[in-house]
Amino acid sequence: MQYVKPLHLFQNLLKAHALERGRLLGLDVGDKYVGLAVSDLDNKIASPLSVLIRKKINIDLMASDFQSLISELSVVGFIVGYPFDRRRLAPNASQVKLFIDDLSEKGKLDGLKYTFWDECFTSKNVELLLKPLSLHPILAKTIVDEFAAVQILQAYLDYTNKNESRKQIGEM
Fold this sequence. Notes:
By secondary structure, the protein is of the alpha/beta class. Helix content is 49%, strand content 22%. It has five helices and six strands. It has helices spanning 6-15, 59-73, 91-105, 122-130, 137-171, and strands spanning 2-3, 23-29, 33-39, 46-53, 75-82, 113-118. Strand 5 (75-82), helix 3 and strand 6 (113-118) form a beta-alpha-beta unit. The N and C termini lie far apart (36 Å).
């Protein structure tokens, strides 16, 4: 796996030939679960996909799951939620980087590009929306992780698409 700057990932995607373009996968990495969201083929809209159980002992299995998703959905890059905090290192930041490092070490995702995107309050926002529904705690947690991934990916898509539109308008 190779890290690229957020805008470079999207710009490279736009430069690719139509047959080489693919979708982006949003990841919300938590202690126990990794929420997943996928973009549409035009990379405009994020949709919930699933939740993977995260354990150190099953990282090889997770890498295989990601390989399957990459081929089934034509995924070309990961947008990984990252807790940016300018004042201090957020405790979750190291676990996100460790997760990406562990996935990279497996060698199953070579050539795949990824970038980090701010996940500030994504889980909290979904929790507040779900609270009135009184869902079973386990079901609520998986929904929170899945839809936090949607928020991360959608925020990235909105930003990059808006930036690309401004760039095109400036060229006119």
